Amino acid sequence: MNQRVNPSVARPVVSERAGITIRRTGVNLGAEISGVDLRHPLPDAQFAAIESALVENALIIFREQDITSDQLMAFGRRFGELTVHPFAPNEGKNAPELIKFRNDETTPPFGTDVWHSDETFRAEPPMATILRATDELPAVGGDTMFASMAAAYDGLSDRMQQYISGLHAIHDMKPFRPLFGQSLEDRKRLQQFELMYPPQLHPVVRIHPVSGRKVLFVNPQFTLAIDGMEERESRALLDTLFHQALIPENQFRHRWEPHTIAMWDNRSTQHYAVHDYYPQRRYMERVTIKGGPVTGVPRADPASIRRAKYVAPEGVDIHGGHKPH
Ligand code: OGA
Ligand code: MN
Fold first, then answer.
1. Which ligand is closest in space to the CA of residue 288?
2. What is the pLDDT of residues 264-287, one digit of tens each?
């Protein structure tokens, strides 16, 4: 792994902006925000402070925010349009944007115990997700793990960073297939969804549209393969890249309390719901904010890589009298 000085270490732990306090809780991601009341519309200056805290910290946490579902949706709408998840359980016609995860002894959690960023099977995956804990939480267990995919990218060797620049990966809705049964009707419905959500090509290294940081943008839930590679090559490369989310230095483990709200920048993080609490109850609500186009980095210029090979310490002639072409 590259041994670089981590600039995140030097950032101040506590900062105040527009009357709110932002306290970092992790080196590479995570901060708790206090001094706001999410039951009421936020003043513009506070909203702007929260918006930039989200990009800087990738994951922001609000404690003791006993808000209603409507207030959650109103808070989410400050950041942009809310989207409707095609497969997650929602409130139907009344509030299709509101996802309710009601996991108890009869409904074990589905599909979130895999590292992922949300909905990367879409052409434009969400910009952010907001998850709210109700007061029905496991007495122990049920944490959520997060990983900074900017730190994950920074941790790759220069060689690997160059190698993956300009590659694209195929993302697919396949994890949701088991939700459909084998009846003819179910298979027809699945086919309709597959037509509506065809596999998408996304850059393996994306540029964060606000911070400009490079982010590793493949995840084991939705990413099937690297475009243009043999299957074995693709599998080996993805395995190496998926591993970056598993490195503890890139992670943050979030512990829920009743009425905690977590919001993550879905462009620069992955997460994993720890499914260790079943059959205890865990009731959560979620809204999701629409994202924009995914912009990648260009392929590393082969000429610059060739030139780089000829860099020699001063006074050392590695060409034996021949000039490099
Ligand atoms: C999600 C998700 C994690 C959790 O809402 O997208 O993955 O801990 N949830 O429930
Ligand atoms: Mn998720």
1. 1
2. 999 999 999 999 999 999 999 999
Q: pLDDT tens digits, residue range 102-112? A: 999 899 888 89
Q: Read off the tokens for 227.
A: 């475009």
Supply the residues annotated as catalytic: 116, 118, 271, 286
pLDDT at position 12 is 95
Candidates 72, 85, 107, 112: which one to mutate for ligand 1, based on the most atoms within 8 Å of Cβ? 112
> Strands 59-62, 31-34: parallel, antiparallel or unpaired by DSSP?
parallel
- State yes or no: pLDDT of 4 exceeds 80: no
Nearest to 50 by CA among 263, 310, 301: 263
How many Cβ atoms sit within 10 Å of the Cβ of residue 304?
A: 9
Instruction: Determine the Cα–Cα distance for residues 76 and 303; give it in Å rounded to an integer.
Output: 46
- Give the pTM: 0.92
Measured in degrees and rounded to the nearest 5, phi and psi for residue 191 equal -60, -40
Angle at 1 between CA 116 and CA 164, to 5 degrees: 60
204 burial (CB, 10 Å; 0-12 / 13-18 / 19+) is buried
pLDDT tens figures, 207-255: 999 999 999 999 999 999 999 999 999 999 999 999 999 999 999 999 9
Which CATH number applies to 7-297? 3.60.130.10
Q: How many CA atoms lie within 13 A of 52 on its CB side?
A: 12
Check: CB of residue 76 under 8 Å from CB of residue 125.
no
